[in-house]
Amino acid sequence: MEVWTGRIDPEPDSLRWHQAIRPLDVAEGPGVALIGFACDEGVRRNQGRPGAAAAPAAIRKALASLAWHRERPAYDAGDVVCDDGDLEGAQARLATEVAGLLAAGHLPVVLGGGHEVAYGSWRGLAAHLANHGAQAPRIGIVNFDAHFDLRDPAHVHSSGTPFAQIAEDCATRGWPFRYACLGVSRASNTRALFRRAAELDVLVCEDREITPARLDHIGEMLNAFVAACDHVHLTIDLDVLPASEGPGVSAPAARGVPLALLEPLVERVRDSGKLRLADLAELNPEFDIDNWTARVAARLIHQLTLNG
Ligand SMILES: N=CN[C@@H](CCC(=O)O)C(=O)O
Ligand SMILES: [Mn+2]
Ligand SMILES: [Mn+2]
């Protein structure tokens, strides 16, 4: 909890996150539960630039001084750490933690970590739903990302494979795989990846399609996708931002989707009533500039959890 420090205002009703957030072990009723996934092994295996293991601390630091506007509590559930390259072990531990948070009625917000975080998070949600008797739950994954992360897991399990791994799990379980990927850069995804996305019936929205003029239309598409799901797993890869807004990632985007367009779409997911789980992935503090990217991550968490 030491990272939760920051500005203290003398006026009444001037709380900030660092003054309101509590350790999970004092949980008093359902709230938002932050859990870190200190891991960049998936990025390393995916030939990216490691450094995302330090992201959970950087995001907490950026969130600490933001103003507190929530009614319900927020908890810090600590970190799951990936040791000695044991990515699969770390994902399994994250899944157990996420399932526990869901069982306690919390909204888990997972602080990645490379995007390999999403496979661990999703497995936690899947375990929770299976434990509660769900037969074939329609889990909609809404991923804001420049990349599909649908690489063939037969080669290596990495930050480039989480949604292909989830698709395989869904096929094994006989569950539907529902995946929307918004912000995709055609220049950064091969034809093979576009083909796999088509085969898996992914809802695809390219970066260049997300413009102010088309924002309402895209928002309606997103609403329709969510309406056809029972539960939503929101996952935000910060490399969806333009490099000028999100420099602190492994693979910065030449074009990207600006925060001003991203945020209203994220808020639609928040307001759907179906959001069960959220991840923030791929922050790499080593490449950040004055914590710009960490600040965006913190703001997104703030917006996501505003009404809870
Ligand atoms: N999570 C990362 N995904 C990207 C990385 C691309 C890159 O490093 O250039 C991917 O695998 O496509
Ligand atoms: Mn990406
Ligand atoms: Mn990604």
TrEMBL record:
Cofactor(s) needed: Mn(2+)
InterPro entries: HutG (IPR005923), Ureohydrolase (IPR006035), Ureohydrolase_dom_sf (IPR023696), Ureohydrolase_Mn_BS (IPR020855)
EC number: 3.5.3.8
Domain of life of the source: Bacteria
MF GO annotations: formimidoylglutamase activity
Protein's pathway: Amino-acid degradation; L-histidine degradation into L-glutamate; L-glutamate from N-formimidoyl-L-glutamate (hydrolase route): step 1/1
Cofactor binding note: Binds 2 manganese ions per subunit.
Record's catalysed reaction(s): N-formimidoyl-L-glutamate + H2O = formamide + L-glutamate
Residues that coordinate or bind Mn(2+) 2: D145, H147, D237, D239
Amino acids binding Mn(2+) 1: H115, D145, D149, D237
Annotated Gene3D superfamilies: Ureohydrolase domain
Keywords: Histidine metabolism, Hydrolase, Manganese, Metal-binding
HAMAP family: Formimidoylglutam
Family membership: Belongs to the arginase family.
Protein's job: Catalyzes the conversion of N-formimidoyl-L-glutamate to L-glutamate and formamide.
Protein name: Formimidoylglutamase
Organism the protein comes from: Aromatoleum diolicum
Lineage: Bacteria, Pseudomonadati, Pseudomonadota, Betaproteobacteria, Rhodocyclales
